[in-house]
Amino acid sequence: MPRFLVRTFLLALTALALQAQQTEVVLSASSSAKLVLGMAPPKVSGLDDAQVASEFTAVLKRDLDETGVFAVLQERLPAGSAPAKAWKEAGAQWLLNVGLTRAAAGDLQLEASALDTAAEKAVFTKPYKADRMVPLRRLAHALADDLVARLTGERGVASSRVVFVRQIAPGVKELFQIDRDGANQVQLTRHGSLTLSPTVAADGRLAYVTYKGGAPEIWGQRRRDGAHEKLYPATGSGAMVSTPVWSPDGRRLAFVQGDRRGNSDIMVLDLDSGRARRLTDGNGINTEPSWNPNGTQIAFTSDREGGPQVFLMQDDGSNLRRLTGEGMYNASPAWSPNGAMIAYVSRFEGKFDLFIYKLGEGKAYQITTGVSTSESPAWSPDERRLVFTSNRFGSMQIFTTDLSGRQVVRMTELPGCQSPKWTRGR
Fold this sequence. Notes:
Blueprint: E1 19-21, E2 24-26, E3 35-39, E4 43-45, H1 49-65, E5 70-73, H2 84-90, E6 94-102, E7 108-116, E8 121-130, H3 136-152, E9 161-169, E10 172-179, E11 186-187, E12 195-200, E13 206-210, E14 217-221, E15 228-232, E16 240-246, E17 252-258, E18 264-270, E19 276-278, E20 286-291, E21 297-302, E22 309-314, E23 321-322, E24 330-335, E25 341-348, E26 351-358, E27 363-366, E28 374-379, E29 385-390, E30 397-402, E31 408-410, E32 417-423
Parallel strand pairs: 3-5, 3-6, 4-6
Antiparallel strand pairs: 1-2, 6-7, 7-8, 9-10, 9-32, 10-11, 12-13, 13-14, 14-15, 16-17, 17-18, 18-19, 20-21, 21-22, 22-23, 24-25, 25-26, 26-27, 28-29, 29-30, 30-31
Helix pairs in contact: 1-3
């Protein structure tokens, strides 16, 4: 079955005002304002200073820099009596003080507090405890997420993970998982065959397509942490299935089923009953479904009007309409977590770039540009970034970008990566 790749339009972000009521500070996810956070050197006990610098401080700074809501200031300013004035004069609006201790038993303790340098009042205080097996970087991620939650009202994504496909041998692809910063790679499947198109439910359950039995089948988990089992088809029908995606409530899977004539349609599988229902019916290719956040609509790619374009329909197949209007090849839609945007790819001069379509405006905006190709966009849980694959350094690797396209970060140095999905739930 042809695989449609996508090119996406860039969302124009509206700068919203920073709202402050003494110690209360809240930023919108679309705000361009950044709060300047001063980071005093950590006070360390029972740990090596160099280890803390590389495995905690550097990780925390990177996490905060990539949030899009903090600008981190690191100065060797006094951390003793009344440091707020000196940090304020250096430009910091908040001052973060951290104490890290390794107890005699090996357990870690982290004390973190943030001070409003103007009001000289605490805006954040929290203790953390972890056993000896927890890496320092995990504590840094947890602190970064909590600081983002304190500032914006929504927890950050430093502790989140990305599930993706990686080729490990000729004809063999398996699912892997990495932490948000690219560390801690874990292999999730060992089918010894082609395993493709991962999708992650809100509760962390996996589903995917595997060719382990010869013909493609949809496998996955019926319960969290459950065994991987075949979900569709119930019998060996030999149907060509691809690109499953969980509904927001985790009770249905939208997927693609093809026939011997080369046509394909969007289907929906009810997990409880095992019944699959066809939503599209016609000659041509209908593929790459993506649910809106409340599970009432599906975006998908179709060539029903010539070249591939992004279309929308209700979850029963009604009210079908075309979304993309510019460009001859638009595909791979990914609906944003709050439902206001759809990311996709568009092909121009033989390469693909990322775009975002803002539904409220009816306009599309370009994110990536350049001589390389960018594919398979998926949203971060907080909707501030996209994860995607690109060949800008040769083989396909995984990258993230903010919605301006100016902050592109490489996540992997592994050959043959594809189909990343960003999730909190695993």
